[in-house]
Structure formats: C-alpha cells, structure tokens
Amino acid sequence: MDNEVVISVENVSKNFVLPHEKVATVKGIFTGLAKRDKSVEVQRALKDINLEIKKGEFFGIVGRNGSGKSTLLKILAGIYQPTSGEIKTNGKLVPFIELGVGFNPELTGKENVYLNGAMLGFSEKQVGAMYKDIVEFAELERFMDQKLKNYSSGMQVRLAFSMATRAKADILLVDEVLAVGDADFQRKCFSYFKKLKANNKTVIFVTHDMNAVKEYCSRAMLIDDSNIKIIGRPSDVAREYNLLFMDKASDHAKKGGGKRWGNRDVEIIDAEASTQNDKIKIKVTCKVNKNLDKLIYGLHIMSEDSSEITAVNNRMINSKDITNLKKGQKIILNWEVLNIFNDGHYKIMLTLIDDLSNTLDWYVGAASFDVIREERSTTAVLPPIKVTTKLIEK
Amino acid sequence: MITRSQLKNRYHYSYILLVQLVKTDFKLRYQGSVLGYLWSLLRPLLIFCILYLVFTVFLPVGKGVPHYPVYLLLGIVLWNYFTEVTSGAVSAIVGKGDLIRKINFPKYVIILAGSFSALINLGLNFIIIAIFMFIGKVPLSWNAILVLPLIIELFILSIAMAFLLSAVFVKFRDVSYIWEVIMQGAFYATPILYPLSSIPQWAAKFLILNPMAQIIQDARYVLVTPTSSTIYSLFPNQKIIWLIPYLITLILVFFSASYFRRRSRFFAEEV
Fold this sequence. Notes:
Radius of gyration of chain B: 20 Å
Largest interface: A-B, 25 and 23 residues
CATH architecture of the largest domain in chain A: 3-Layer(aba) Sandwich
Distance between the termini of chain A: 56 Å
Number of helices of chain B: 14
Order of helices and strands of chain B: HHHHHHHHHHHHHH
Distance between the termini of chain B: 31 Å
Strand content of chain B: under 5%
Structural class of chain A: alpha+beta
Low-confidence stretches of chain B: none
Largest sheet of chain B: none
Number of strands of chain A: 18
Radius of gyration of chain A: 28 Å
Number of domains of chain B: 1
CATH topology of the largest domain in chain A: Rossmann fold
Strand order of the largest sheet of chain A: 5-6-7-3-8-9
Structural class of chain B: mainly alpha
Oligomer: heterodimer
Order of helices and strands of chain A: EHEEHEEHHHEHEHEEHEEEEEEEEE
CATH superfamily of the largest domain in chain A: P-loop containing nucleotide triphosphate hydrolases
C-alpha cells in the first residue's frame, strides 16, 4: 500500500509558443494583416520529464526562477496540458497555486468562504458545517460580514489559509504558499505541514526555501533549464541548488555589485574570497593613489540578509598599521578566517581608513563566499566550543 | 475508463461551482446601487417606455397589431436575454483568466453560470410581461404554455452562441467589436420593433429563417396575438422549411460545443 504510485509523469514535455508581434505603426497593422507574420518562438519549458511519486511522499521541487518548476506543477494540477507525454494521477488532487482562489474583494468574508469553498469542491452544506471552525482558525469572528476589500492582506491570507487547511485531498500541490505572511503565519503553515506529514498525505511542494526542503521533504528534485538535474535526498538536492548560485554570486561581487564610498586615497582594486574546509581566505589588492602616513584596514563578514556576523580591523587583532605609503604602491592583504560558518552565503565588506578616521575606501559586498555543509543550522556560526563535565558524588 | 461514481463526482463539482457562480453574479450585479435588484425590472421597463413612445407616437409601425405594447415588450425581453448571454459571454472566459490559471475546473461552468443568471433575469422580466398582459386584457389561452419550449430553444441557441464567442475571443480579441456590430445589425434584422407584415413578403420569408426571429414570432403567437406571422404561416405548404431555424440552432450547438471542448484545454495558457 505504501508503495502505491499516486502520480506518474511519463516523458512529459511542454512547449510554449510565443508569437512575435511588434506592430509599431498604423501602416504596419494593415500590411501585417495582409501578410501575417508567422514568426513564432517556441519556448521549451520542460523537456522529457519522468517522475513517479508514491503515496505519502512529501516531495519537494526546487529550481531557479524560470526553470520550469511552476509549469510542471501546473501540468500536474491539470491547468496546463503537456505538449507530449502523459500524466496519471490516482486520487483527489487539490492545487494551491495561490491561496484564496476566486476571492472577490466586493463580497463579504462570509460570502467568500462559500465561493472559495465551492472552488475547493465543497457544497454549501459542507461549508456551512465547518464555517465556525474556519472563522475561528482564521481569528476573524468580528469581520466576516465586512467586504473582503476592507481586510488587511494579512487577514485575507489568514482566511484563505484557513480554507485551504479544510481541503479534503489525497494529493496536495503547494506552490510557495509559505512565502507570504509573517512569522506567526509561517509557523501555522509549518505545523499544518507537519500534520499533513503525520497523516501520510502526499504533498508536492515547490519552494526556494532549502531549510523547508530539508526539514519536511522525504524526497526532492531540482529542475534546471527545463530538465531534472537531480532527484533524491533533500540534502543532496539542496546542496546542488546552492551550487547553482555560487558562480553567479562571485561574478556579481567581482563586478562591484555593492555599495561603496570613500575618498579613494587608497583604493581596493581586487578582492577574492575562497572557501576551504577549515579556512576562509580573502585576498585584497589595494592601490595607493596619494601619500599616506597610516592605513587601518578592516574586514566585516555579513550573512545573506546583511546582518553583521563579525567585524575586525588590524588594531583589534594586534596587527600593525601600514605606514609611510607612497603614491603608486600596491598593497596585498591576506585575511584568513577560521571556517566556523554554517551552511550559507556570506558577504564581505572591506574598509580602509586613515588614523584620523577619514574613510578612504568602504566597500560593501566587495566579495562573497559560500559554505556548504551537510547539516543545516539556524545560527550563522559554530565556533569551536568545548565543554567538560564532572559529576560530584554526594 | 471513467466509472459511474467518478462521473457523478465530476458533475457534482460542476454543480457546486455553478450554484456559487450564479449567486456571486447576482450579488455583484447591482453592487452599490440604491435600487439594487429592482433594476432587473426597471431597466427593461424604461427601455420599453422609450421604444413604445417612439414606435407608437412618432413612428407608428405597430399600427394594426393588437396589443402592440405587450407585443413589443415580449420581443424586447427575449432579445435582451439573447444579448445579455452572448455579449456577456464574449469576455467571460478571459475575465475569469485569473481563476483559470490557478485551478483546474470545468470551464463550461463559467458560460453556464452566465446563462442561468440571465435566465433568472428573464423570469423576472416575464413578471412585468404578465402585468402588462393583465392591464392590456390580453386573452390567454392554453397555447401560452408553449412559451416554455420556446424559452428552452432560446436558452440553447444563446448558450451555443456564447460557447463559440467566448472561446474564439480567447484567441482573437477582435470578436468583441465584431459581435457588437453584428448585434446592432441583427436587432434590426429581427422583427422586434416592427411586425413582419409591414415589410415585403419575400423579406419576411427570409428574415423568419433566423432562429431568433422564429422564437420571438412564435412566442408572440402563443402569448399575445395569433395574427403574428410565424414561419408556419409564411411557408404554409413547405413544411421542410419549418425545420431550418431548428437546424441552424442544432448545427450551432454541435459546432460550438466541440470547438469549446477542444479549445478549453488551452485556456489557461492563452488567456
């Protein structure tokens, strides 16, 4: 029973035909009508996808924007038809491409519950029976007779989610629903997910959140460039996903994609960060544009959301200032940091100041590095910590 | 193979959706207006007043037609139903594009909902007609019951047209403009304002082949006055011709239904 296949995808491809129509002039409209320009572009959104999902699986689909993952989800939901290939589903399938499908701002909350309920396949009687629970769960008792357009977006999401959790389905398709809502709402979503998992429901889940993939999915798949790149353990898939972004991220830093200011008496001309197993090495090349007595140099490491993890300058770590600089000289700074970072993407900010606290070059996002680890943690760093224990007898 | 219970489940969902869509349509229709549902009655009444004024006082085309006011009103009401269903349907699928792109449901429900909500409106309008018939002392015979099959024919004709228009509009947005012009022309090509007896017989013989003309004239015949020319009175000895309006409707039904069925699978990508 547990090995029953509930969704099978066989050689599914999907092409979108995009017509090129650029009629800029009135004359163009008429001539274009006469000899209708048939130039079309065929966009291959999915190429030959094969997939089997078994009952009770929590299956994650990840991939970059535009990789084809949402197209696949829509094909599974029956919204799009595959260009070739076949999809077989076994059981009632409810898609959540978006929460609150069919919500109408001009109707009251109550009326919307009935409308959305119908979309999910509930008769009026069935909605009536669970109406109280829905309202209670959404915590909107006082607002149900108000028009939806007067709801805050948070209230709308709460109502929609409350509806969604009632859906009776064997297979649920969920598309980044968790991306909306505040922390409190996300917690609700996650506890709902845990419940689904406990009830052995089949869930197919499209997301960008590798944390969620590792935590909830029993199996995952990475789609890149319309193909399945890897199917397997969530941690492997998450690693593969992060690798997709590594090259891109370092490119970006090289092009100077950060904020930067200062008088540039001494200027950072190159910065490179490399990750090694136990060390992060950062090589910084600077050029002296003006004679200078003393140079103080600093390094900041920030997490992806730009919160600072650590910040040092040479004085704090007992290194000498660089003195007596002459125009035209070059300086190479070799930073070395113990790799105590957890899995993730980190940004580097470099600073150069003189001893009068004038900013010479302050470079946010001068370089970046990635740390890939098997295990995932909610904290940014894991410094070497030791503990000894001693048991004292009575 | 689709089992019987699956089939039942499928239509169960359509039914639930249909009920909610019709309800929503009615809730939203007169949203924010002071008189609300009364407009369902007032609108045809006011339009009728204008036409009545024009066509009895200034251009007395209806001279000699017994109970001309009711005769006129019935024509307008039936024509309005056809207009409401078809014009509403043109953009119905595209208008629900947001929904279609997010959930898989039988698309024909959208068109069906539009038709039913117009049908409810038609029912309300028939109350007005009944009142006028009472005031105008129109004699009522058992023939009046025959208006029901005529309404069924009207329902089928309108919905067939609606399926075709809505599906074509997804690909060719020109349809809305074209249909507007066609409806304007068809309004005059259908004997709504004028009795068929007031135009040359060869023209009347041609116009009556249009299913809308046949429905309106038949409805007038059974409800208002037996003097109303029908396809049967215009072609008394060519019974085969009587079938033409029904045949047109039937062909339209099969063509539209199969076209809509074929296209509806791709609505999500094309709207």
